[in-house]
Amino acid sequence: MRCQRKCIAWIVSVIVLCTAVTACSCSLEDQRVSDGILTVMTYNVCNLFDTVTDGTEYPEYTPEAGWTVGSYGRRLELISQAIVQGQTYVPDIVVLQEIEHERVMQALVERHLSAYGLRWLATTSDAESAIQVGIVSRYPIQHAVVHGIDGLRSILEVEIETPVEPICLFALHAKSQREGEKVTEPLRILTMAALKDAIEQRLKYNSQSPILVAGDFNESADAYYRWKSEFPTALVPATDSHAPLYERQGSILITGAPPVRGQWYSWWLDPQQFTDAEATGSYWYKGVWESFDQILASSECFDGKGWDFDCGHVKANKQICDPSGIPYVWDERRRTGFSDHLPVYIVLKACN
Question: In which domain, by residue range, is 316 found?
Fold first, then answer.
């Protein structure tokens, strides 16, 4: 299957919701700065739609199909609980997949997340897609750019001004494996190729700031080995003998060790981080744990300056999982559950 990509980049609006900010959230922000940590979370929320019929939503999420204001409100509440999970500190930056649009992001922030200091947000707006990618941040989003990919979901790029140094974050949701893993792989490679183009443009004017790539890759970090190197995957181990060739063809190179420029660290491949994880994957698919949800870190996260990698983890507690440890999926009839994915995190620490 041969595919070609056509990419267009455009600036999108950044929204800051100031009306819900409280003294509590400000003191929380101050305390986080003094702690010297930055926590980033990625979470596929599994189809978060409002009750307004826009024409692009999935049919089950319309008033005609029984999707109600109460159900929508309950989903917002539960998704916010999954993000907070009773922690003293919630993530500083949250990347979400499968949200309907900016309006849903605003509702989630206004009703729930703003109380925890999360009030800056940006989203994609793919006209022909029912679902989008969004980012909400405790710290100011200085600018946001969408990198459109013909026929695929766009990539959202933001620069976030943190107390230590700016962070560049790319958020994505790659093509699913619904039609088959092998047949859809070229489309995930297209997304990675577009990502590399966007990063290359970024590096032309800022080559020092750390870069994170977060989202649902619809591919596990070890997919290449699972397929016994039969064909190129979107994510290729940097140590493989075919890595240079596959990188030229669009794949990105990942490693479980501190990366060099042009490689990306995935904590799923780091034996120490993987051993400490609460689950062996973030998505239970066809009876197998998959690490589809990932946050990749650039070499600047390992240079001993500014923000540096501290740890990665996946949340699999009893609040969001069933007794067997499988994600507790939303049940419309009971109005309970969360998502078929688990939230994944990366923690950065400030270097002196």
Answer: 7-350
